[in-house]
Automatic annotation (TrEMBL):
<dbReference type="InterPro" id="IPR020630">
    <property type="entry name" value="THF_DH/CycHdrlase_cat_dom"/>
</dbReference>
<comment type="similarity">
    <text>Belongs to the tetrahydrofolate dehydrogenase/cyclohydrolase family.</text>
</comment>
<dbReference type="Pfam" id="PF02882">
    <property type="entry name" value="THF_DHG_CYH_C"/>
</dbReference>
<comment type="function">
    <text>Catalyzes the oxidation of 5,10-methylenetetrahydrofolate to 5,10-methenyltetrahydrofolate and then the hydrolysis of 5,10-methenyltetrahydrofolate to 10-formyltetrahydrofolate.</text>
</comment>
<dbReference type="InterPro" id="IPR020631">
    <property type="entry name" value="THF_DH/CycHdrlase_NAD-bd_dom"/>
</dbReference>
<dbReference type="GO" id="GO:0006164">
    <property type="term" value="P:purine nucleotide biosynthetic process"/>
</dbReference>
<dbReference type="InterPro" id="IPR020867">
    <property type="entry name" value="THF_DH/CycHdrlase_CS"/>
</dbReference>
<dbReference type="InterPro" id="IPR036291">
    <property type="entry name" value="NAD(P)-bd_dom_sf"/>
</dbReference>
<dbReference type="GO" id="GO:0035999">
    <property type="term" value="P:tetrahydrofolate interconversion"/>
</dbReference>
<keyword id="KW-0521">NADP</keyword>
<keyword id="KW-0028">Amino-acid biosynthesis</keyword>
<keyword id="KW-0378">Hydrolase</keyword>
<dbReference type="GO" id="GO:0004477">
    <property type="term" value="F:methenyltetrahydrofolate cyclohydrolase activity"/>
</dbReference>
<feature type="domain" description="Tetrahydrofolate dehydrogenase/cyclohydrolase catalytic">
    <location>
        <begin position="5"/>
        <end position="119"/>
    </location>
</feature>
<dbReference type="GO" id="GO:0000105">
    <property type="term" value="P:L-histidine biosynthetic process"/>
</dbReference>
<keyword id="KW-0486">Methionine biosynthesis</keyword>
<keyword id="KW-0658">Purine biosynthesis</keyword>
């Protein structure tokens, strides 16, 4: 039976440590501040943004929420980002993705001041990641590394297979894994003989958004399996990209959905907001 990699428990621990740090910062006159821009009313985005606000409030991070209508123009959104770039009280800026189709995600992300890019999506942050310089990195990959660390799962020399090549999970996670001396393969929808590849993974990460895509026959016995997928089924329940019931008896460790990667993502966002805020003291 696989060890359950409990993101809920680990994220709580991280958040309570952060709360102490935030208290210390407050005594020095700094309130870490995160600005979140949500355009439109995608139901999943609403849930994630609400969770982020709740966690921020719990630990004393100020979260400024900007809800813009579905039909917001690129010009209006860029003006909002520009305003937040200039605001000395704002440490981190997050534009919730995906954006409605009239908006150009790349242009919007590139307009965020790299020094306030708490998601680590800007080209400057991505460049720093791949040159192994200190940087903010995307919250989900950061959270995955923190979860592995909490369970003392060392990635050094391990074969890591990441299914999914998105800018928010697959690619930045590959960078972090390489920086931690793993041997990394990024697989995707065009990969041939995917199952043979995933079966070689010591650590298998799946981030494609296809419910129950990974069954027991795609997993090496004893492997660590990280399920990043989260889809709401017709039954109203949340499903991961991994068929957990089938994989649990085979894997060595497995993240649940919900309660695995999701809570770690939010804790990581808070951790990096606090890191950005510390720069107000040390430059
Ligand atoms: N600019 C930007 N930055 C992001 O970091 C970002 C984003 N856009 N767009 C979407 C993805 C996804 N993401 C999640 C955050 C929290 C949960 C989360 O709280 N999950 C809970 C369950 C949530 C539920 O009940 O639906 C859990 O897994 O236990 C999941 C996914 C952040 N993302
Ligand atoms: Mg999860």
């Amino acid at each position: 039976m696989a060890t359950r990699l409990d993101g809920k428990v680990v994220s709580k621990r991280i958040l309570s440590e952060l709360q102490q740090t935030v208290t210390g910062l407050a005594q020095q006159g700094v309130t870490p501040t995160l600005a979140v821009i949500l355009v439109g009313s995608d139901p999943a985005s609403q849930v994630y943004v609400r969770n982020k606000q709740r966690r921020a409030e719990e630990i004393g991070v100020r979260s400024l929420m900007f809800k813009l209508p579905e039909e917001t123009s690129q010009k209006t959104l860029l003006a909002k980002v520009a305003e937040l770039n200039q605001d000395p009280d704002v440490d981190g800026i997050l534009v919730q993705l995906p954006l409605p189709k009239q908006l150009d995600e790349r242009v919007v992300i590139n307009s965020i001041d790299p020094d306030k890019d708490v998601d680590g999506f800007s080209p400057v942050s991505v460049g720093r990641l791949w040159t192994n310089e200190p940087t903010v990195v995307a919250s989900t990959p950061y959270g995955i590394m923190a979860l592995l660390d909490a369970y003392q799962i060392d990635v050094t020399g391990k074969r890591v297979v990441i299914v999914g090549r998105s800018n928010i999970v697959g690619r930045p996670l590959a960078g972090l894994m390489v920086n931690h001396d793993a041997t990394v393969t990024i697989a995707h929808s065009k990969t041939r003989d995917l199952k043979a590849l995933t079966r070689e993974a010591d650590i298998l990460v799946v981030a494609i958004g296809v419910p129950h895509f990974i069954g027991a026959d795609a997993v090496k016995p004893g492997a660590t399996v990280i399920d990043v997928g989260i889809s709401r089924g017709a039954d109203g329940k949340l499903h991961g990209d991994v068929d957990a019931d089938a994989v649990e008896p085979v894997a060595g460790a497995l993240t649940p959905v919900p309660g695995g990667v999701g809570p770690m993502t939010i804790a990581s966002l808070m951790a990096q907001t606090v890191e950005l805020a510390k720069r107000r003291l040390h430059g």
